[in-house]
Specification:
- The chain has 231 residues and is mainly α.
- The protein folds into 2 domains: 45-153, Arc Repressor Mutant, subunit A, CATH 1.10.10; 158-231, Orthogonal Bundle (Arc Repressor Mutant, subunit A).
- Helix content is 41%, strand content 8%.
- It has helices at 9-14, 46-62, 69-81, 92-97, 104-112, 142-153, 166-176, 189-196, 200-212, and strands at 87-90, 126-129, 185-188, 219-221, 227-230.
- The chain has a 3-stranded antiparallel β-sheet. It has a two-stranded antiparallel ribbon with strand order 1-2.
- β4 and β5 form a beta hairpin.
- The chain is globular.
- It starts with 8 loop residues before the first helix and ends with a strand.
- Residues 23-46 are annotated as: Disordered.
């Protein structure tokens, strides 16, 4: 495995078996002045959205294109919750809340892509080992990454019922991670499809579904279909 450093995203995207490693995935010195949290926050910080956005971007290149939306959501939780040795421990309650408990086919899918070791079904928390060393020693500590992983489960303000299809949940998460301070938000149509592993037609259908269930008020594409705008 090769890691491309100081290379542009276009070059990495055009080269087989490569992926852009975001800055938050690279080792960085931890701050020495750590202040205790005195109040529970109810709103996500921009850093949490940034970590989820960058991890979605990384996984879009690191995972095979055919990876299912449910497996991508599972991989995101694993990548954000891993320790420095690539070991992930997922409580049963977390997997049940995601409607992924005992979905062994998803673990097999990620193992088939050589992203983690095969998962052995057993009672109690799921413990797996990630083979992708790029996510082992990420810049932010485990606390900030776990908060980002928790926000990704219920990405305000684009909240969905946990029973919603994984494809709908994934595209809603991708949109929530790209929110802007303005009332109207934009993202490249190809970028959105790349993050979710969908074609242009599939992405448009999923956006229509978000409007139908009133998660989005509306969405539209520009004249060249390069950019999608939603509110």
């Amino acid at each position: 495995m090769w890691r491309l450093a100081d290379a542009c995203a276009a070059c990495a995207a055009a080269t087989d078996s490569t992926a852009v490693v975001p800055d938050t995935l690279l080792s960085s010195p931890q701050p020495t002045d750590v202040r205790p949290v005195t109040a529970r926050r109810t709103q996500p910080s921009p850093d949490e959205r940034l970590r989820v956005r960058e991890m979605l971007t990384y996984l879009a290149s690191a995972l095979p294109r055919v990876t299912s939306p449910a497996a991508r959501l599972l991989a995101l939780q694993c990548a954000l919750r891993t320790d420095a040795n690539g070991v992930v421990r997922l409580p049963v309650g977390l997997l049940r809340g995601m409607r992924l408990h005992r979905r062994t086919e998803l673990w097999e899918e990620l193992a088939h892509g050589f992203w983690l070791q095969p998962y052995e079904l057993r009672s109690g928390p799921v413990v797996v080992h990630l083979l992708d060393v790029a996510v082992w020693d990420q810049g932010p500590g485990r606390g900030p990454r776990r908060r980002a992983a928790h926000w990704a489960l219920r990405p305000r303000p684009l909240l969905l019922h946990s029973a919603a299809p994984a494809a709908v949940q994934l595209i809603a998460l991708a949109l929530a991670a790209h929110l802007s301070p303005r009332a109207t938000h934009t993202i490249g149509m190809d970028v959105l499809g790349h993050l979710c592993g969908h074609s242009l037609h599939q992405t448009a259908e999923l956006l229509d579904r978000l409007v139908a269930i009133r998660t989005l008020a509306s969405w539209r594409c520009g004249p060249d279909i390069a950019e999608v705008t939603w509110n």
